[in-house]
Amino acid sequence: MLQPILKIDLTTRAISQFTVPPEWARDYLGAASLAARLLFDELSAELDPLSPEAPLLFLNGPLTGTAGPAVGRFVVCGKSPATGLWAESNCGGFWGPELRKAGFDGVWITGRAEAPLWVWINNGQVELRDASHLWGRGPYEVQSLVAAETAKNVRVAAIGIAGESLIPFSLILCDHGRVAGRTGLGAVMGAKNLKAIAVKGAGEVPLIDWAAYQPVRAQANRDLRENNVTQVLKSLGSGSAADYFDYIGTMPKQYYQSGVFAGAEKVTGAAMAETILTGVSACHACVIACGRVVALADGQKRKGPEYETIAGFGPNLLIDDLSAVTRLGELCDGYGLDSISASNITGLAFKLFADGRITTADTGGVRLAWGDAAAAEFCVHAMATRAGLGAWLALGARKLAAHFGDEEDAVQVNGLELAYHDPRGASGMALVYATSPRGGCHNQSDYFIVDLGQCEEDIGVHYYDRHVGVGKARNVALHQDWRTVGNALVLCQFANVPPMQVLVLINTALGLDWAMDDLMRCGERAWNLKRVINHRLGLTRANDKLPKALLEPYTDGGAAGYVPPLEEMLSAYYHARGWDETTGQPTPEKLRALGLDWANL
Amino acid sequence: MPPAFPSPAWLSSFHNKLNADPQYASIAKKWEGDLIFSIEPDGQFPETVHFYFDLWHGKCRASRTLTSPDEVNALFTISAPFANWKRILDGDLNPMQALLTQKLKVRGNMGYLMRNVPVVLDFARCAQELSKTD
């Protein structure tokens, strides 16, 4: 990283900065991978993620703000209050590039402010300002109020009341609804009495060799613009594939219990384009522009839902009303709740109600009936405010299920509620969910897209049928390593940039002379480092599992009859990774080969 | 022997295959739109060929060779070098994989395409089966 990391202790109000050792910047590139190295010594099993001692690190990638292909992103890392494990969540918008222009490549927060405050980073100057007037407000309101107090085009990353009240699936939101949504880092901000970080900068984004980078960047963007997937995402948003996911059975319905929902076709990216879509939105310098702008009956333009929100508040609850799904997503953003977790928990509540384990006595008379959008709204309001049943909803799916019957009913891994890509429709996701360093997450590897055919021959990620199990274990590991490179840059997963082109971008931007093997080794190194961190935080081989629902076959739909052979896949995966099959830990030999001897468990 | 791709005989046989295939008729029963196959020259095939298909409710109403894709305003144009078409027709390249890895390029109404991926895949199946006919 070419710029310093800002360090702020909110307890003492001490502000300092430090420079990342060049060899760390080289070996980990940036963002989540570098954060794992920086935070390695800070994270322990005993550390309470909501304590003042817990670190919270906002970090850019080495290409953030360079107008390269879909690299205008940043990441937030720490220890997750949802999982107790490694936490990372990256985010688009404009905040990351603005931070670089303000002279920093990251912000490291520790401590706890005596009273709510927000951080104002303005062209290298840093202030801690009173946030008492912002506390209790939603992220969009905070953006407006901070802008009124500072500058019109200031970029603000803020939490809502969910983060303030330490809900373990609360998000950090910036710009037009771009979120660091997963692993509950909004609660870590809330625990620190930190409402927002606002940035404004006018500096140049530093690179080793801008002249060499410029034509490579421009060509990569031209190629990306012509890409089939880009064309689809631009036209229909991230919900573009919802129809197909529905057809082949990778989109779960009725809380992962049903393979078919007749109303699914009404809540897709195509349906949005046919009905409420009025425009699109893009992150910094992005040629894809997957963001949706929609207008509902009130005529007001607002953020349209992306795929996960569509699937989670749509078919997952058997809701076929796109306007209702839009409002539910908006409600989550306004409260500062991760819509994947919020919709998953709502689905679980609906299931428990259908099973008779949650009753109207628990809900104050509200019937949590499948397909009832008003009941879903009730759940979101309740969980955000911890009112009534909401006190249990706000604890997350695992604890909700445990309280009302059986923890195994929760569709989660290690405390993180699953996204909406069913391993019964795309078997690679079984390994992805079971071994992700942050729990039930699809962003450490969106392998479902490989299962559909988007292989990467440059790096040995081949195409296997979506219902091949054991045979694709090494393929999954390679794809995880590749996406770890992406998460170090931070390269949006929607950007279908060929690996060879990414290699050239990195070499020219950073003055490196890497081969593809070096790049993949960089990804593998960080993947293994996060694994070691999680073992230090208490993860064992037994944590590599799937929820019960995903190991029971659908009786209908495009994935009917198939269950991924998880145990056999895991054995093959550990072998492919060079991990001990008994403990699930990287072997000393593997760590040594990756230059991680110092991290040996 | 199946007719050579992309000959007029292949086009005619494919037209007939689509209209005789009950599975295609069922899957494509709601399809309303035309498309163009653009076969681009490469080392194996020196010419550019554009095939036009008028597809309607599970049937092929018309097909012909175009001089230029601009002759009609088709719902979709799917283009690829000859070798990639051949790999798809021979069953060596999954059509969805070809789309996702840019071995085929698609332009047109993406909303309609994503609504009807199964139809497009079944259209490809018919073409593959034709190539295997003897």
Q: Approximately how much beta-strand content do the residues of chain A carry?
A: 5-15%
Q: What is the CATH top level name of chain B?
A: Alpha Beta
The general outline of chain B is: globular
Count of discrete domains of chain B: 1
Strand order of the largest sheet of chain B: 3-2-1-4-5
- Biggest sheet details of chain B: 5 strands, mixed
Order of helices and strands of chain B: HHEEEEHHEHH
Strand order of the largest sheet of chain A: 2-1-6-3-4-5
CATH architecture annotation name of the largest domain in chain A: 4-Layer Sandwich
- Would you identify the CATH H-level superfamily of the largest domain in chain A? Aldehyde ferredoxin oxidoreductase, N-terminal domain
Nearest-integer average pLDDT of chain A: 97
**Radius of gyration of chain B, taken over Cα atoms and rounded to an integer in Å:** 14 Å
Helix content of chain A: 25-40%
* Sheet/helix structural class of chain B: alpha+beta
Multimerization status: heterodimer
CATH architecture verdict of chain B: 2-Layer Sandwich
CATH topology title of the largest domain in chain A: Aldehyde Ferredoxin Oxidoreductase,  A, domain 1
In the CATH scheme, the class of the largest domain in chain A would be Alpha Beta
The residue ranges of chain A in which pLDDT falls below 50 over 5 or more consecutive positions are none
- How far apart the termini of chain B lie comes to 4 Å
